[in-house]
Design goal:
alpha+beta; Creatine Amidinohydrolase; 2 domains; two-stranded antiparallel ribbon; elongated
């Protein structure tokens, strides 16, 4: 015979909540963190390879400018313009102190306008401002004029072009860039907050033939 009160005990135990350890939640969280680490690491790796190609393009553009006889200031400007894709967000144009005032007036609508443009770098107005400012930047007469015409947050991380080669035979330009790492979890792959990009290009030195 079933002991008295056994059925009542079973019914009470059946309805009681069972303890849950939360182990499955912790395991899922760990897997998600690992997947995010792999994903962000792959994205950062692709960005680094892209930045290296852009840095090489900047070296190529700089050595072409040097090979046809442009001075150091012009080569510096060419290097900066060629490195725009590696330079982060635009900080200016601001108010241009020279140039075509009528053409610039449609862009010179106040700081709130520039803030809205910088917040949406894929907009048509952003591209128009950048395209308008680049020729003015290349035509600047001295360094003091440059920041007000065109400036980017990471241009300061791009070093001055270093000249190499043998005068009269070859011209070479080396471009160095401390490329910042900004993807989440980058500390898992690098102890530093940037990587050093170094690119060099060489061409035959024909400038002396034309500039004598």
């Amino acid at each position: 015979m079933r002991p008295a009160g056994e059925s009542g005990d079973r019914s009470r135990n059946f309805g009681a909540p069972r303890a849950k350890s939360g182990q499955s939640i912790l395991e899922s969280f760990g897997i998600m963190m690992l997947l995010c680490l792999i994903l962000f690491g792959m994205v950062q790796l692709v960005l680094m390879y892209t930045a290296r190609e852009i840095n090489q393009y900047a070296a190529d553009a700089s050595v072409r400018a040097r090979a046809v006889g442009f001075n150091r200031f012009m080569v510096f400007k060419v290097n900066r313009v060629a490195s725009i894709a590696n330079a982060g967000q635009m900080r200016s144009p601001g108010r241009i102190p020279f140039g075509d005032a009528e053409a610039w007036s449609e862009f010179n609508a106040g700081e709130s306008f520039y803030a809205s443009i910088r917040s949406n770098p894929r907009s048509r107005q952003f591209a128009e401002i950048e395209q308008f400012a680049i020729p003015l930047y290349l035509g600047a007469q001295n360094h003091a004029q440059l920041p007000g015409i065109l400036d980017y947050e990471d241009w300061s991380e791009i070093g001055y072009p270093i000249y190499t080669g043998t005068p009269g035979y070859t011209v070479g330009v080396q471009v160095n860039h401390n490329y910042p790492l900004r993807m989440p979890f980058y500390r898992a792959f690098s102890a530093r907050d940037h990587i050093r990009l170094r690119s060099e290009a060489r061409l035959a030195d024909h400038a002396y033939l034309y500039l004598e």
